[in-house]
Design brief:
180 residues, mainly alpha, Four Helix Bundle (Hemerythrin (Met), subunit A), two-stranded antiparallel sheet, 2 strands, 63% helix
Length: 180
C-alpha cells in the first residue's frame, strides 16, 4: 500500500488552493488587471488560468480515463484555455472559480485508488520519459499551481504587499523570540 494516496493528494491540493485563494483575496481588485510585462497574463488572467488548470487533467483522468496522449489536439486545448482565462471576471467571480474548481479536483482525488495512481500513461512521441504514472501526472497539477502562486507572491511584493505565508512565518519566529 502506498503511504501517499488519493486522500493525501486531495488534502495537499486543498492546502495549496487555500493559499492561492488567500493570495487572490489579498490582492486588491483594482490590481487584477496588473501585468508585470505587456505580453504576460494579468493578475486576474493568471488566477483564472490557475482555476482552470484542473479542468483538462480532470477530463483526461476522470472523464475519459485516457492511457495515452494519442489523438489530443494540444493547440485546441491551449487556445480554449487561453480564451477562458481572458473572460472578464470580478474579484468575487475569480475567488468562486478558484474555490469551486479546486474542490471539484480535490473531491475527485480523494477517491483515487493506489492501483489507479500506479497506472502508466503513454506520453506524446519524443517525450522523456516515455511513460509516467498517473500519480506523477496528478502531482504535476499541484506543482503547476505552486509555480504560478510563486509568481503571484512576487507580484504581491512588487505591489508592496507582504505575502501571507511570509507574514505567518515572521509571526512564528517572533513568538519564538527568533530575530530574522
Amino acid at each position: 500500500m502506498n503511504c501517499y494516496g488519493g486522500k493525501e493528494l486531495a488534502e495537499s491540493f486543498r492546502t495549496v488552493r487555500k493559499n492561492t485563494v488567500q493570495v487572490a483575496r489579498e490582492l486588491p481588485e483594482d490590481k487584477y488587471g496588473y501585468r508585470v510585462f505587456a505580453e504576460g497574463r494579468s493578475v486576474g488572467e493568471l488566477l483564472a488560468h490557475m482555476a482552470g488548470s484542473v479542468e483538462w487533467p480532470y477530463r483526461f483522468h476522470a472523464v475519459e480515463h485516457k492511457s495515452s496522449f494519442e489523438g489530443i489536439d494540444f493547440g485546441s486545448v491551449i487556445q480554449r484555455a487561453k480564451a477562458e482565462e481572458k473572460q472578464p471576471r470580478s474579484k468575487e467571480q475569480v475567488l468562486e472559480l478558484l474555490r469551486s474548481s479546486g474542490e471539484k479536483w480535490a473531491g475527485y482525488l480523494e477517491g483515487l485508488s493506489d492501483e489507479f495512481l500506479a497506472e502508466r500513461v503513454q506520453m506524446p512521441p519524443g517525450a522523456t520519459p516515455a511513460t509516467k504514472s498517473r500519480f506523477e501526472m496528478i502531482l504535476g497539477v499541484k506543482e503547476h499551481e505552486m509555480h504560478h502562486r510563486g509568481q503571484l507572491m512576487l507580484i504581491e511584493r512588487l505591489l508592496g504587499i507582504v505575502p501571507h505565508l511570509t507574514r505567518e512565518m515572521q509571526e512564528r519566529f517572533a513568538a519564538a523570540g527568533i530575530k530574522i
